[in-house]
Amino acid sequence: MNFEIILVDSSDDGTDKIVSKEFPEVKMIKCEERTFVGSARNIGVEEARGEIILFLDTDCIAPSDWVDRMYRAIKKSNADGVGGALENGTPLSITGTVGYYLEFFRFFPDRRSNYNNKLEKALFLVGANCGFKKILFNKIKYYDGFDETKVGEDFYFCWQLLRQANLILFAPGIFVRHQNKSGLARVMRYQYKFGIGACYYRYHVSKEVMKIFLRIPLLSFLMPFAVIPWIGYFVIKRLGKFELMKYTIMLPLVFIGNFFWAYGFFRQINIIKRNLNNL
Fold it and tell me: Based on the structure, what is the number of domains in the chain?
């Protein structure tokens, strides 16, 4: 199968020179200013010539058959978009694994043989491992974040697709390895930032639900008590009993991380509430 690889890079670590020298077949697009993921994807799409666009983030490692399996999943299902799963790329790091549980529990891989080619209807996909028909980008673009967190672009992009009655599917048997953030302070800061972004985007797409939190912002701190068992459900369903043991041992750190997420959500809901009162 013929395909092209496009790399959009805005780093200052010499990545562009390394790639150009070692992998001349890769189409290198160097951005002189810091470019966040939403804008980088839009730039790559503009340069792409194929009918199917696959996205892979810089912190992911794909298996050799990833392109073929993703392409076939989209073509055979006739879905507008298909997203794959994320495997824990930092299994020996406690904090990296905690961050993995919190951020990607909806996208855990499933290695059971009957799941190799299984597709499930999804509400949104993770941008680190997904693909879409290029024609969709004539109407819809990725946003680079409406606030300073620069997160949630995947959520908002899929919400736009579903508003147009498009079909998106999740493939738990097609996965890439994600190199998670590690270090206690780093993981907790990111969860706080992620909570801010989650609140901001949910306010834009679920205003009726968010009215409850606007009336009682402290409800934000009850969410970990719902999320923690939810993560456990996906752990046992997709990763198995051994992983559930690991998850149980790490529960205190998982709860603290989710509390930081809830605190970010709480802070942002209060900012939204204050801005609305000032109108």
Answer: 1
Query: Domain containing 255 — which CATH number?
Result: 3.90.550
DSSP 66: H
Positive/negative CA dihedral, 138, 142, 144, 147: positive
Q: Token pair 């392409």 is at which residue? A: 71
Structure tokens at 65: 């058959």
Angle at 33 between CA 31 and CA 37, to 5 degrees: 70
Encode pLDDT of 194-214 as tens digits: 999 999 888 888 889 899 999
Strands 120-121 and 27-30: unpaired
E strand or H helix at 97, and its extent? helix 94-104
How confident is the model over 221-233, as pLDDT tens digits?
A: 999 999 999 999 9
* Kind and range of the H or E run holding 50: none
How far is Cα 19 from Cα 62, in angstroms, rounded to an integer? Answer: 17
